Amino acid sequence: MKITILTLFPKMFTGFLETSVIKRALALELVKIDIVDIRDYATNKFRHVDDTPYGGGAGMLLQIEPIDRALLANRSKDSYVLLTSPKAKPYDQAKARELAKKDDIVIICGHYEGIDARVEHLVDEKISIGDYVLTGGELASMVIADSVIRLKNEVINPDSLAFESYDDDLLEYPQYTKPYDYKGFKVPDILLSGDHKKIEHYRKKMSLLDTLRFRPDLIKRHRFTREQKELLLEILDDLKSGNIKVD
To answer: Which of 28, 31, 125, 212 stands 20 to 30 A from 221 (CA)?
Structure first.
């Protein structure tokens, strides 16, 4: 896989490329990441790539010309071009899995007050990482790249991907490690039982419970299996009896 990121601030990516999963993926040549400075494609001697908006308004807008020139020089006929933007559907795990199937992705990072709207004609899709505003698209591009790269074969242990938050629209179950008792906070005894069937049942139940507690919106749209319906009934019974509580 190749990922090309068009940005005004290439130095922001230094740490991103040199740590953790991304560094491993690059070392194993499972992915190639190119960071492209949009200013290199400016046509003026001062390397300006922004200007005031037509019609007036605060701030500066990124111009279409240097972005178009950067795209022409760094995309192929197979590139799938993304634009980070607050005017898009929120990014999710399903979209990450979809993008992970692409061989060549180009991400354009917006900045300042915005970007010339005509840039939208140059891209295949706009992506927002949430309902908030960032100074620029650099952080968003890192989020997208990280979420996609970790799904590629051999980047991380496949067992780690077996069940994660947002797979199947549910949050992951809580996990614990040593010590068993830390300042009175104990690991649930079921996890030390050695009974793998009961542990699996417990984890599925806790996955549903945490989703109910923290992301009820996911519960509303989730398509329940028969087993999950039974688990949800158990949770509701526990709530009624006071055995568990949802804040």
So the answer is: 125
